[in-house]
Predict the structure.
Amino acid sequence: MKFIVLPCDGIGPEIVDASVEVLKASGARFGLALEFDFEDLGFSSLKKYGVTIRDELLERSKTYDGIILGTQSHADYPPPEQGGRNVSAAYRIGLDLYANVRPARTRPFLPSNLREGRSMDLVIMREATEGFYPDRNMTRGWGEVMPSPDMALSIRKITRHCSERIARRAFELAATRRRKVTAIHKANSFHMTDGLFLEAVRHVAKDFPDVQLDDLLIDASTAHLVKEPERFDVLVATNFYGDILSDLCSELSGSLGLAGSIMASDTLCCAQAQHGSAPTIAGQDKANPTSMILSVAMMVGWLGDKRGDDALRQAAKAIEAAVDKVLANPQTRTADIGGTIGCKAFAAEVARAVAGA
């Protein structure tokens, strides 16, 4: 089994190295033959090749069993015409990684940002290939234009095809959990675009009679997530809403650095941490690699389910359990969540726990 590893920018190289160390430990324990190819991406690629991502690399990524993608500082890239292509968007569009799966859960041994007595265990299923983002809603050109220096316009694209397939993934996931899907929208204002999305979700719901469907306006959902997060199981949303809600939920559950994330098509899966590149602490061994490690675990679990491979499923569960075991000990937490150890030491502790030491 071969993975392409793309460290990218900021703390990306550190947290990616941590996740690879943990993945190797799971491979040794469960008899997985793992290989890794490392490639330049982001600023290192820009310096070496003149572009943040090469078309050849994107195409070659399709041939791997999985993709491990580090954090990007895309806000600091030069304009696209100068080689500063958004890496995440390139992978999501180029490999059709339409399902951005973002769980958020509280842990009884860690403080959360919820009110006392409240808990959270939910998954946001975010459509990632269309919506408000201007770099992924046009066949040619850009989804934002400025007719004059004092006027800017943005185009939003919502399709029935993309809405139905992300809805189907949401219902399939909910069927393995607590059997509830909440569709997030603003159809009272965006009558056509969010209206089409909601219509598509309701259409798919007919194929899942054992899964309950409700829906909430995006603004109302934020209030309910703060007030009563236990009501939610799987939330399905368009790109922009899902992006915002996933950051909110992860932070409410304890920290944005504690939640994993994958981007998946029907045949490919990419592990990518939920958070940004944190360039101010890059190279200082201060990063918390939990999100990246859990993202890799999610990718391994996704592969196990796709292939019916129990060893992969067990490896994914072992990584998740090991992370919780290490986090449960205040002495083996990174500084951002009240501990004292660094990124490398945390990875070593998780790797030891995965190995059963």
Observations:
- The radius of gyration is 20 Å.
- The chain has eleven helices and twelve strands.
